[in-house]
Structures are given as C-alpha cells and as structure tokens.
Amino acid sequence: MSDGIPPTSRQKVHGLLAGAIGSGLLVVLLVGVMWVLEVVDYVGDGYLDRYGIIAHEPDGLPGIFFAPFLHAGFPHLMANSLPLLILGFLAAVRGLGKFLGASLIIILVSGVGVWVTSPPDSVTLGASGLVFGYFGYVVARGLFDRRLLDIVLGVIVAALYWSILWGALPGETGISWQGHLFGLIGGVLAAWVLRRRRPPVTRVSTASIE
C-alpha cells in the first residue's frame, strides 16, 4: 500500500536521516577521543600538554594538529564539549567529506594564526578554535550555498550563539582569543572553499529577422 510519498522524496528523507546519524556518531566519536586523551593527560600529570601550540617556536608547529584535541583540565574540556557536539553535528550534517575538509581548514587557519600572533613561548590547547570555526562555517555556508536548509540552520545558529563572538576579541587573561578569531576566520574560509559550485549560465543569442 502506497503512503503517498514520491520515491524521490522518500530517498531524500532516508539520505538526510542516514547523514544525520553518521554525522552524530562522528562528532560523538570526536568528542569521545578528546575525553580519552584528557583522562590519559590527567593520569600522566599533564604530560600531553607539551603537544600544544608553542607560539613562534618551530618545534611548536606540530601542535597545530594536536592542540584541538587536548585541554587544560576537565573544566576546560567540559566547557567545549556541548557546543562542539551541537555545532559539529550541524557542520557535518550536510556531508562527512565536506565536514572533514572544513575541519582541516579550520585547524590549519586557527593553528597558524595562534602560532604567529600569540605571545612568544605561550602554549595553547583546546577545541575552542573548532567551536568558533564550526560556528563560522555553518553561518557562512548558508550565505554561500544558498540552500534553504543551510540558510535556516545558519540563521538559527547565528541567533543562538552570536554572543560567542565576544570571545574573538582580546579580553580575559589566559583565554586564547587568537584561537577563537582565527578559528572563526577558518570556518568562513572553509564555507567559501567548499561552497556548492553552480554550473555556468549559457547565454543563447537570438538573431533578429528583418
């Protein structure tokens, strides 16, 4: 017996559900890895903290790829976990390939920005750059892709999380506003780089008949 839903619409719904489930599992796994690493770091008396981004030091460059997964204690990790789960899920729901590409761009832009602009020899840890990056990515994706779903998600995220933008400005001591700012920039850049490419419009010339 038919349920009245066209096959193409049913396939789209199934695709969205499968994408949502996959996105949710991936982001939960990502945050889970961070918690495991923080437990290891706690047991090791902060041993992993040395793998953060050490500003201006060539030896600190590998920390660009490690720092987003490390935190300066459980309160720091707890503060990042919920927004990372929500914004990460919304960033991933439109495709895991683009999500991974966006994450890489955000990590690189945020990490290099921190390495260049932070005080010399300072060590930066945490997923805040990813949080700000996913915020920028989800909001800017709606502007660049112009899909209805992306626009709606972008507006909702902007309305709910706009206050985090204050964190991208110099403020509280010990908080890496550089990581926040460059993470945000990385998210907007990722949305532009990974935007939907539209086919070129072909112009049809019409000849006039006299």
Automatic annotation (TrEMBL):
Keyword Repressor on entry: no
PANTHER family membership: RHOMBOID PROTEASE, SLR1461 PROTEIN
Organism annotation: Herbidospora solisilvae
Highest taxon above the source species: Bacteria
Descriptive protein name: Rhomboid family intramembrane serine protease
Record GO biological process: proteolysis
Keyword vocabulary terms for this entry: Hydrolase, Membrane, Protease, Transmembrane, Transmembrane helix
Chief location category: membrane
Transmembrane segments: 16-37, 69-92, 99-117, 123-144, 151-169, 175-194
A GO CC annotation given for this chain: membrane
GO molecular function, one term: serine-type endopeptidase activity
Lineage, highest ranks first: Bacteria, Bacillati, Actinomycetota, Actinomycetes, Streptosporangiales
A Pfam family hit: Rhomboid
Location within or outside the cell: Membrane
Keyword Protease: yes
Start and end residues of each Peptidase S54 rhomboid domain: 64-196
Membrane topology term: Multi-pass membrane protein
